[in-house]
Design goal:
This protein is of the alpha/beta class. Helices cover 39% and strands 15% of the residues. β5 (140-141) and β6 form a beta hairpin. The termini are far apart. It binds pyridoxal-5'-phosphate.
Length: 392
Amino acid sequence: MLSPESTVSPLSHARWWRAGVVQAVSPPGVIDLGPGYLEPSLLPVDEVLPLYPEALTEFGAAALGYGANAGAEPLRALLAARHGCAPEEVMVTAGTSQALTLLCTLLGRPGRTVAVERTCYDLGRRIMTDHGLRPREMDADGEGVRAEALDRALSHGDDVAFVYLTPTFHNPTGTVAGEQRRRELLAVAARHGVPIVEDDAYAELGLEPTTPPPSLAALSGRRGVIRLGSFAKTLGPGLRLGWLEADRDLVETLTERGQLVSGGALNHLTSLAVAMLMRDGRYDRRLSWLRRQLRLRRDTLVAALRAGTDASVTVGCPAGGYFVWLTFGPRHSEASLLAAADRAGVAVAPGSRFGGIAGTHLRLAYSLNSPEGLAEAAARLVAAWRNEETLR
Ligand SMILES: Cc1ncc(COP(=O)(O)O)c(C=O)c1O
């Protein structure tokens, strides 16, 4: 067994990291800063391997039966203790995307709106529009959505299903809402009687010594807030495991949906396997290790970009999560920046993908490459943009 400090597992089976097995791979020679994936060597193959035998030994046949509709008690209890709520306020899900889909089937119907940040996780928005929800966009600042913008969005007389927010380590901007802002947003939503869906996929990935403010769910006692958590960003998306926190009545309503009554828990054996990891400190050790790895990658990318760009480019340094958000001055166009990056063999995500914000932006993920790869990517980008005379 490798020590937790080693980054390349003998079980990483690089030959299988290919399209058709995993969702997407970058073409040879391209350094991919596009998607919010973990680098294969950061995926915990060695740590996950023993968990299934452990779960099967401990739970026997119960690990292979239909799981309790809201998720198996052992994981619900561990999550509840970790997040300061009751097990009845926790439901195990198959990740944030599935939880959002389930919520849309309950709260959404064509013609209703959903209040979203103008710039937000594009695929979260897509899940909502897939269900016929119409996005009502809200303005944000360096702390995310402003309370007045939320108030305005909820005052149009629309039939609003819910508000979708990512107050912690926002994708793509990296912003964090302070506690005061969180309380203001909660007060506005409560006054309008509209629930908030808090997408907290990156909450455990703070990269600074300071911890982020309490979640909206914690601040509200889970009244009027549904918090979505995921192991996709902290362990691996292939586990398809997450949870939601909400008031007991909503958890009960969700667990009475046909999908759950028919199929039981959404990811039963994996939820028991991950409970093995969480109950004795292995999960926390893994998280500390992952945060160190991500901090090194973030710092490498930010430092190299800042050193190579002028005042017309603002290189954000997020306090957590996976992404650096770049803001370009008015003389830069997204199309020419993307074309230059493409010619230099670096894939990046266009800011426009995340909504119609003013100005030119790019999102760069530091999660999918080694520090060396990120340094090389930054050098290529800086040179390419300079050659384009888009920078200096
Ligand atoms: C903000 C946000 N929410 C949710 C997800 C998807 O989460 P999951 O893999 O748990 O479905 C992502 C992944 O990129 C994300 O960035």
